[in-house]
Specification:
The structure is a homodimer.
Chain A lengths: L16 H21 L6 H8 L3 H8 L2 H22 L10 H27 L2 H4 L3 H16 L6 H9 L4 H10 L4 H16 L2
Helix pairs in contact in A: 1-2, 2-3, 3-4, 4-5, 4-7, 5-7, 5-9, 5-10, 7-8
The structure holds a DNA duplex.
Chain lengths: ~200, ~200
DNA sequence: CAACTAAACGGACCGCGGTCCACTTATGTT
DNA sequence: AACATAAGTGGACCGCGGTCCGTTTAGTTG
């Protein structure tokens, strides 16, 4: 016995070498396609072809197109999580919870401005729109900030309601179709938070 | 000259007799399919076949699957509009604007409970999710109620942000996946409105 | 090194949304 | 009644997301 063989609950065995290699190839190919031809050009066939693998492999790795998009966003998402969990104020711990909430919204809006198209593509599927682990983290974060700010009430649902106007699809619509500026969206977010947390 | 031939801006000529007949057939067929086999069974082919017309006709009439779903919701949507524009309080004019806002949210949530699946299918397309006339009416309504309630700030964006948590896809998720009750959602909505309109 | 097995692979296949265009028909005019 | 034409029609066709399953291969065991 070389290892203690503890149950390792929740930790599944690492994927095989070729699988990991193909995952990288696929992510690179997808990112390249987004960069040079836009998100609409990221079809599963195109990605598979560009990565030099079969279509089935793409689905085996990512489950669906939304899953692939989600994986593409994973890096940014983790960065944001790091920032609001361990980074400097006002996003990270140490600042007033209300200021942290405001900073959180600003950060999200800024990300939409850069990666909105991919985020929208990722939101197209139900399981990744609400059931994604990343979303759960955001909800918990907002809940804890609301609590820390002394807000009374149904924190869980209030958090969902506050997160809703930050959805990429809506923000993108406000930016592109309605011609609103990032500053205006940020100001409206701050106003919303101040109203909700007031008293 | 039998008619004054005024420009009639914004009023396009009525559709031909056979076209109107087929529109009805298609809507009936779609509604029937929803009722007996669920919204997923409402494929464009199935609807066309059940209505006894070609597939092209369905797209000519409704533009897309989302458009068809939207048309299916049109009746309910108009009813709601009538209610909050001309109906009795608290939804209609006469009541306190804050109470009207609260009633509006309750009404929307109740509709999701009944027609949520179809609404979700209708929300899948961009042009019908935000650019739909029905949505514009809702936004204007909320804006005017906010104004009437004496709320200061960016009414347009605040209205969008308040409407966001009422989106069918999210409400459906909260009801079905998270197991929340309609009452809880209604209470959270009321709480949100009171917070936002306070001071 | 040979044998074995679970994992990964790939591409044919399917169904659906959406487009296109040659053909048909309703409707108003002379 | 014959005509003109704009509107409507239908179904072949396309591309994409997603599934399936026979084949290949990486990693392990003796």
């Amino acid at each position: 016995m070389t290892s203690p063989l503890l149950p390792q609950i929740g930790v599944d065995p690492p994927e095989r070498g070729d699988a990991a290699r193909n995952r990288r190839r696929l992510l690179d190919a997808a990112a390249l396609l987004v960069a040079e031809r836009g998100v609409d050009a990221v079809t599963m066939d195109a990605v598979a072809c560009k990565a030099g693998v079969g279509k089935g492999t793409v689905f085996r790795r990512f489950g669906s197109r939304s899953g692939l998009m989600h994986a593409l966003l994973d890096h940014t998402e983790r960065e944001l999580q790091q920032s609001f969990m361990f980074g400097p104020p006002p996003l990270g711990p140490g600042a007033d919870p209300i200021d942290r909430l405001i900073a959180f919204g600003h950060a999200r809006i800024a990300i939409v401005e850069v990666q909105g198209e991919v985020q929208r593509a990722a939101e197209n599927s139900l399981e990744f729109r609400f059931a994604a682990p990343a979303r759960a983290v955001s909800v918990r974060h907002v809940v804890s900030l609301l609590r820390a700010a002394g807000v009374q009430g149904d924190h869980e649902l209030l958090a969902c309601s506050l997160l809703a106007p930050l959805e990429a699809t809506l923000v993108l619509h406000e930016l592109r179709d309605l011609g609103m500026s990032v500053e205006r969206l940020g100001a409206a977010w701050e106003d919303l938070i101040r109203r909700v947390t007031r008293c």
